[in-house]
Design brief:
Number of domains: 2
Number of strands: 17
Radius of gyration: 24 Å
Oligomer: single chain
Helix content: 25-40%
Shape: elongated
CATH topology of the largest domain: Aminopeptidase
Structural class: alpha/beta
Distance between the termini: 20 Å
Strand content: 15-25%
Length: 523
């Protein structure tokens, strides 16, 4: 398995299978963590939990830590999920309970807990999702890992399963997926200086050095202005400060070709390392937390870490991390400017706080140009783009298809797969009003980048930005009614990426991974 550079000090412990609960496992593990809707039957620890339930009516709600000689280390942690058979229950119950159970086990002093999942048979990825929840509890921010001499509180995690070979596959896949999420959390959760654009580039190069993922960083200001003029406008204020200068990071993975059906996937991620709002500055205390505005690009990098370890065949993936700081200053871009996009459209700037669509549009155009050289291509943008998505969907990602992607029911398929992995998303539709919204009425102008109101106060505030990017990048010229239709899907993860002080979630890495590498998720 690929390892991380030593200086990043990644502390993901090994996860090992265990097919026995006998005394022989007591020397290896020091706690048993049971994740279940109710007290499991048929286990040696059942009498202990049954007696506790007689004096604690909250046991199946709150769980417990208790002494039990039948459990490794004499520690028994019960982490109930609550009922799982309701119409609106989902597999996240297991991730959340496992995370709480792991936290409680660590608090009790455990260094090698053994996880056991029971119930919830309607969730085919129950154990995998639960282990990912437990590993999330162990995540420590990159800046903390770099600041202290020793990190990590758990040395080993066990996964109980009667079929040891199946448990081993789940354990190995969980670690690979978790390391992808770790990359996304490191980048997305880094503070504005630790993960300023040049530092994002350095981190990404370190992660993928010597691997099957190729890294190309475009940081020259003149080249950015020439190839990605809308990106360069956002980068203008920060470009005069060396440590804040933006860059476009291009990642490429090209798996072994098996046949002519090789898929070509393009992921364009918003990587705003800090969003002041630019000249339309975020006032009234709403600027706090804007270091998380890079979680789209972080997710793209994390997805490539999964690619690096799974190395799937018959797929080529190109990722473009659009990493910039939306600074305010005498050199910043302002509303009313007219800028010509890479696709040759004249764009009037309406709001400098709509910088996310600006940094992604020209890289999306670049991806479109490359996609036309290959068969079976699918463009995607991933961004913490709008407050409207947060209000409309809460803590769920919004997924929006263009015509060709909708014809293949991509959003419906990825939503269903996301539910299986606890990577939840809701479907939004692109309408003719969204296309019309960005049309400029000014003479000699093609598009209006944004209106003057916040997205949260704009009807269809998370749909029309996708329409703008599609038009400004020239993707709209490849619709279903053309000779070369091109699929394009937009993910607005603003409500799902994780707000401070919570850990970044890494969405939609799990959904994308299962969608494109589903054969490796069959147990």
């Amino acid at each position: 398995m690929a390892t991380f550079p030593p200086h990043l000090r990644v502390n993901t412990p090994p996860v090992v299978p265990c097919s026995s609960l006998g005394k022989d496992v007591h020397a290896k593990f020091d706690a048993l963590v049971i994740v279940s809707p109710q007290i499991p039957t048929g286990l040696a620890v059942q009498p202990t939990l049954q007696k506790l339930s007689e004096i604690d009516s909250c046991l199946n709600k709150e769980g417990c830590v208790t002494i039990c000689t039948e459990a490794p280390g004499n520690r028994l942690v019960y982490a109930p999920t609550g009922p799982t058979d309701g119409d609106y229950d989902d597999v996240r119950l297991y991730a959340e309970a496992a995370k709480k159970g792991m936290k409680r086990a660590i608090g009790a002093g455990a260094k090698a807990p053994l996880l056991l999942m029971d119930g919830g048979c309607q969730f085919p990825n129950r154990d995998l999702v639960a282990v990912l929840g437990a590993l999330e509890q162990l995540y420590e921010p990159l800046s903390y890992r770099e600041a202290v001499k020793k990190t990590g509180t758990v040395n080993l995690i066990g996964l109980y399963g009667e079929n040891e070979a199946e448990a081993r596959r789940i354990a190995e896949l969980a670690v690979k997926l978790s390391n992808g999420l770790l990359v996304a959390r490191d980048i997305g959760g880094g503070d504005p200086e630790r993960m300023a654009p040049p530092n994002v580039a350095s981190y990404v190069k370190d992660i993928f050095q010597g691997s099957c993922v190729n890294v190309d960083v475009i940081a020259d200001t003149a080249k950015l202005e020439s190839e990605f003029p809308l990106f360069a406008a956002v980068n203008r204020a920060a470009s005069v400060i060396e440590r804040h200068r933006g860059c476009v990071i291009i990642l490429t993975y090209d798996g072994e070709t098996l046949n002519d059906d090789k898929r070509n996937i393009y992921l364009v991620g918003k990587g705003i390392t800090y969003d002041t709002g630019g000249a339309d500055i975020k006032a009234g205390g709403i600027m706090a937390g804007m270091s998380r505005d890079k979680c789209g690009a972080a997710a793209v990098a994390g997805f490539f870490q999964v690619l690096r370890t799974l190395q799937p065949k018959n797929i080529r993936v190109v990722g473009l991390l659009c990493v910039a700081r939306n600074s305010v200053g005498e050199n910043c871009y302002v509303s009313d400017e007219i800028i010509t996009s890479r696709a040759g459209l004249r764009i009037r700037i309406g709001n400098t706080d709509a910088e996310g669509r600006m940094v992604m549009t020209d890289p999306l155009c670049w991806a479109k140009e490359d996609a036309m050289k290959h068969k079976n291509s699918h463009l995607m943008t991933i961004a913490t783009l709008t407050g409207h998505a947060c209000l409309a969907l809460g803590p769920y990602s919004a997924v929006v298809d263009n015509g060709p992607a909708r014809k293949e029911n991509f959003s419906l398929k990825i939503q269903k797969i996301g539910e299986q992995m606890g990577d939840m998303m809701d479907i939004s539709s692109l309408r003719r009003e969204d296309i019309k919204f960005s049309k400029s009425t000014g003479v000699g102008e093609d598009l209006l980048q944004c209106n003057n109101a916040a997205s949260s106060r704009t009807p269809r505030g998370h749909q029309f930005p996708m329409a703008f990017m599609m038009e400004a990048a020239g993707v709209d010229k490849f619709g279903s009614n053309t000779s070369s239709p091109l699929k394009y899907t937009h993910f607005d993860i603003a409500g799902a990426a994780g707000e401070l002080p919570d850990t970044p979630t890494g969405v939609p890495i799990l959904a994308l991974s299962k969608y494109f590498f589903g054969d490796q998720f069959q147990f």
